[in-house]
Amino acid sequence: MKLEGTAILVRIYIGESDHLDGRPLYQAIVARLRELGIAGATVLRGIEGFGAHAHLHTTRLLRLSEDLPVLIEVVDSEDRINAVLPELDRMVKDGLITVEKVQVVA
Q1: Cα angle 87, 91, 97; round to 5
Q2: Most exposed: 16, 40, 41, 57, by fewest CB within 10 Å?
Q3: SS (H, E, C) 30-66
């Protein structure tokens, strides 16, 4: 699917140890987005971060390196993103979802 012009970027902030139905949450989210025909999604693993509970997750401390921050970026048209947001909200129990308009160039 070729996407041009104004689109929506969704950022989903979760932890590497977050799971859904026995599999990593990021894998479950990407698989579902692919099933729904969303234009694109990318998973990025962070080297350090903290969330609502202010627990530091970092590669610098060996014992905490198993729950590093994970960012999933999703891009598609506004109507397709609006259709999938309720499902993403149900999947992400302890995380953050942001939405912003973007201009797709290529």
Answers
A1: 80
A2: 40
A3: HHHHHHCCCCEEEEEECCEECCCCCCCEECCCHHHCC
Closest of 43, 39, 45, 9 to residue 29, by C-alpha: 43
- Cα–Cα distance, 84 to 32 (Å, whole number): 10
* Contact yes or no for 73/9 (Cβ under 8 A): yes
Predicted model pTM: 0.87
Our CA dihedral for 75, 92, 30, 105, rounded to 10 degrees, sits at 10
| 3-state SS assignment for residue 1 | coil
Query: Residue 23 and residue 5: Cα distance in Å, rounded?
Result: 35
Q: Are 32 and 91 in contact (CB under 8 A)?
A: yes
Structure tokens at 54: 């202010």
pLDDT digits (tens, 9 = 90+) for 43-81: 999 888 777 777 766 666 555 566 789 999 999 999 999
CA atoms within 13 A on the CB side of 47: 1
